[in-house]
Amino acid sequence: MRISRPIVPVALALALAACGSDAQPAAEAQEIKVGLLHSLSGTMAISEVTVRDAELLAIDEINRAGGVLGKKLVPVAEDGASDWPTFAEKATKLIRQDKVATVFGGWTSASRKAMLPVFERYKALLWYPVQYEGLESSPYIFYTGATTNQQIIPGLDYLKEQGKKKVFLVGSDYVFPRTANKIIKAYAAANGMEVLGEEYTPLGHTEYSTLVNKVVQARPDAVFNTLNGDSNVAFFKQLKSAGVTAETMPVLSVSVAEEEVTGIGVDNIAGHPVAWNYYQTTETPANEAFVKAYKAKYGATKVTSDPMEAGYNAVYLWAEAVKKAGTTEVEAVKKAAPGISLDRPEGKVTIDGENQHLYKTARIGIIQPDGLIKQVWDSGEPIKPDPYLKAYPWAAGLAAS
Amino acid sequence: MTAFVNQLPIGLSIGAVLLLVALGLTFTFGQMGVINMAHGEFIMAGAYTAFLIGDLVLALPAAFLVAGAMGLVLERAAVRHFYGRPLDTLLLTWGVSLVLQQLARDLFGAPNVQVPAPSWLAGGVGILPYNRLFIMALAVAGVVAVWLYLNRTALGRRTQAVVQNRRLAATSGIDTGRVDMLTFFVGSGLAGVAGVALTLIGPVGPGLGTYYIVDAFLVVVAGGLGQLRGAVLAAAGLGLLNSYAEFWSDASLAKVIVFAVIIAFLQVRPQGMFVLRSRVLT
Amino acid sequence: MRDLIRRNLPFAAVAVVALVAAPLLLEPFRLGLLAKYLCYAIVALGIGLAWGKGGMLTLGQGVFFGLGGYAMAMYLKLTEAGPGGLPDFMVWSGVEELPALWAPFASPVLALGMAVLGPMALAVVLGTLVFRQRVRGAYFAILTQALAAALVILLVGQQGLTGGTNGMTNFFELFGRDLAEDSTQRGLYLVTAGVLGVLYLATRQLVNSRFGRLLVAVRDGEDRVRFLGYDPALVKTVTFAISAGMAGLAGALFVPVVGIISPALLGVVPSLELVVAVAVGGRHALAGAVLGAVVMGYAKTAFSEQFADGWLYLQGALFILVMTLAPKGIAGLLGRVRRARTA
Predict the structure, then answer these.
(1) Which residue in A4, A25, B36, C128 has the most C-beta neighbors within 10 A?
(2) Among A6, A89, A116, whose Cβ lies nearest the Cβ of C170?
(3) What homologous superfamily is domain A25-147+278-361 in, according to CATH?
(4) CA of C24: which chain A residue's CA is closest?
(5) CATH architecture of A149-277+363-395
(6) What are B50-65's pLDDT values in tens digits?
(7) Distance (Å, whole) CA A386 – CA A137
(8) What residue segments make up the domains of chain A, in order of their start?
(9) What is the C-alpha separation between B129 and B135, in angstroms, rounded?
(10) Is A243 an interface residue toward B (CB < 8 Å)?
(11) Which region is the signal sequence (chain A) (predicted)?
(12) Does pTM top 0.90 for this prediction?
């Protein structure tokens, strides 16, 4: 194959030239660049695009109200492509090349874990908007979704209140379900509940007949569901056709929000409970405005959900911290952030100084025949975030911190 | 014990799903040696047809035509230049599959859509819901139809002739190009039918095809190229294996076990269960 | 002598560009990306050998890449944890004692050895099993693809052992050097480029040897080679093992360069993407394979920075076009241009 050899240097030089040619002009003094890093393609795009949209809405609103420190926010959106190493790569690009003031991004725990070393290495800020498995508290990440004691544990409290003593655990095979189930088992042991079974399926799994058989045979009072994404569609469809109803065996989900309900089919899931901090129907003045603005911008048929709201809040919280600090400089913003408290669509949220999570109100809702979720229980007041579950004696030994 | 007994019909119903998604492949891969990675996207096209029509029964023939037409276009536009180069068609059709996935995302949006199940499929017998029985019936009907087509129609017999010896068939006056076209049409159409059936049990979204494609190929490989009875036996076997392996371990391990068994099986019968005897020299 | 120089001139030119110009001209972020593409290029070189020269379409090269990457990642995690310590993900997975499987990876020599020999051993086992039974062509392709799918599920399922879906990340140092430092990254880039260069020369030598001619003969007429008294299964197994070893080494380099290894990097799709890259570059020329990996890697980055959604369209379309219009890839096209000029 002699023919090919001479082409290589040429092509390599071309590639090199192309690589080096995109140095960015320095940011204009009147603008603040912020990075938005979500999956816009691949399997996670379905969820993450909506969060990005909510973040863009917040940026719009802030700009219309005069911006931050008199400067306009300019979003720089990058695609994580549902691929964890890509998240790390794009985070590096946003920080080093675009020199953004902060980044809002991520959905899966895996994407956050992949970005974490990048943000710590370059001492940059990440705002992560999704509920997650806890056991983490990076000095360079603000967590605006729930940690386990603001979602999983309230969910269990609710099941206990309802007199559900025997539960079956079903989850996708990754870190969040596995950690959540460890917590559930410890909680059950301390609260006189019984775990009848624990099953995991690969992400994207769609054949649930065997698992449904296992669940039905075990006869639990309730199922605690940590399945993710498309698997929920298959699971609920196959559970329904096996004759399981919300009355006989409620399935409490922690990863099914308003936007997933349509794909699952309202018929298949109506009546089952979910645990979050926010629903489209949550009654606060801020939420009325949020839902209205979101629908106005993206279409009347769109729904709002918990992670979207958490992303929307993240932008406001960061802007507030910047105003307080008088600069976008990371260390100053970090210093200014603790104690900041805002009335958001989910109600009052406050940044905890210790672990950079939020005080949030936990809410249990029931999926309605119209696809929306009606709140049936809440924690009354915002719960202090406790990612390592230090305040729960039964959780001791779950993980060394 | 009941749970254990229940796994038998469950295994067969998993097998029926596998058979449905693989049936079209016994045509395109088995009969023509074309590795069509876009087969999964033809399944997806069938599912979206069901979504657009909204009625399961009407959707079956419609999906057959839609997916079949897509297959026809693919065959005429590209695949026919690749006969005898199966590995190249694999890469080509993978490109097609990427484009179709993104197209579905742009046309129907990234979120899953809902295809309502007909009310007459609610309920069930024992552990098997009616919708599973429907899928099993559909798989059986598909196999019977394919068998009749291949063995009882002139077109089908011509197809078999082309498979066994393309040159000799051509010499005997068979228009092999037309046969290829038709075979691809039927094979892709069957994928569309499978897609309609899958709306009963799984998600309907742009990624639908990717969930089934590897399993479908494994069925054909284990069954033997172009062997209908091989595909039936392999699908049933893999379904049962899957069902019991998952019952005793978990879903993740079951998949790994299935793969290990297939490799081991190919050690014993490298060409799958049944081998087409042909005098063509490789 | 003159012939020798002329023959190696293009290679020398590339070497100068890659080893001298690139580190001087590119900013650290872009140099890191280039290092990543070069890791993929090493895998592509192996695919070029196995597929282009040997006719074995391997759709599971990510498996070997991943094994190499995991071996390296395990070593990095263990050095950070220190003697008696546990890697971070084990702590939050509730693992209390270091699994025995991990113990050997505390040694850099063993870890690197495993990164290369592990994939080779797996390839030998798999190759012996399938090639002896004359499983080939499409069957082999589908089997390797299923292997990739199965390994991903296995890795994801053993969270305490492998980090699950998250994989392993958060590495700080390699052989006592801070991985965050630009100088370390530049060093890694040079090592990667050097390894690629050496492997390229070695592979070229191999292809031009007697063994190489036998390999091509097996590709073009396996039965005929068998009639001549050779053992095609052995030839294929050896080749497959070599390509697996390259992929493993590439994985081991990839981990410190990119800073993460996860099941998503070695599944069906990334394995296929690498084959695509080789096809685009030109599978019949080893240089084409390398070129394809770099070009496609760059295209993916550039495209996703501009318009994320378009990448799938572009990749798909490129693929269809290359396969239908230029089955010999870029290398073939350029070769045609060159031939036309000299004619």
Answers:
(1) B36
(2) A116
(3) Response regulator (3.40.50.2300)
(4) A20
(5) 3-Layer(aba) Sandwich (3.40)
(6) 999 988 899 999 999 9
(7) 10
(8) 25-147+278-361, 149-277+363-395
(9) 10
(10) yes
(11) 1-23
(12) no
